[in-house]
Amino acid sequence: EPTVRTELMEQIPPIAIFLQESRPKFPTAFFEYLMPIVVRYLTDVNNQVRKAGQEALLILLEQDLVAQSDIENKVCPILLDLSAPDSDDEYKVEAVNIICKMASMLSRTTVEHMLLPRFCELCSDGKLFQVRKICAANFGDICNAVGQEATERLLIPKFFELCSDSVWGMRKACAECFMAVSYTTSPEVRRSKLSPLFINLISDTCRWVRQAAFQSLGPFISTFANPSSAGLYIREDGTLSIRAPAQDVNSNSCQPSNNITVMSSSASAA
């Protein structure tokens, strides 16, 4: 019964945490018994079971309970198979969604070598606009996961494609994550490539795209500031935070520090 398998998946994370805390007594129980079940249910015929398996996997990754070898040898190959060009549409949409969500929880090397090439392919998926939209909505997170070099070499060309997509929802998603993408690039790329691209979005024929671009204008401009003097920085949760420069705080100890947190456009849209 699918309901039984779904319920089982919901119990996997607490069992895994218990086994981790009791590892001297159960040194290999999780890897031998539970992890294979999670991987198998990622391809279950029932979508509710698959969803429960995906949620369980993300919790396990977030809790750092999955070994690096299992990630590279079991989890990533399954996701690559599910997101292949000839894969079923429903499986592909689910796979790209889980790839985007887990990217921030994996090592940069794993993401860049195993998942980034497939992500770039999915950004150009001409069959399913849902796949491209998921890629566009999570583009900033992928850029942050792989760093500046891979972003400028591989991801920026794909970002240009998505910003020019015929579906306005794609362009809107790009506008919403523009600050996160810009923050990962060098000042020269921001000035010479991203600025003209942003002007295109702010002049888009669709008013929803223009509105999203105007909402991202301030955060995008903030990425040009020098963090050491402006006090602007991006937190791990994707928010843009502003703190008063140290010299201003020290100059007048009677004044409270001006600590303001501004949600990035990509974070607020989520």
UniProtKB/TrEMBL annotation:
One GO CC annotation: cytoplasm
SUPFAM superfamilies documented for this protein: ARM repeat
Extent of the HEAT repeats: 115-154
InterPro entries per the UniProt record, alphabetical: ARM-like, ARM-type_fold, HEAT, HEAT_type_2, PP2A_Regulatory_Subunit_A
Pfam annotation, one family: HEAT
Domain of life: Eukaryota
Entries under Gene3D superfamilies matching the protein: Leucine-rich Repeat Variant
GO molecular function, one term: protein phosphatase regulator activity
Keyword annotations: Repeat
Protein name as it appears in the record: PP4R1 phosphatase
Gene transcribed to yield this protein: Ppp4r1_2
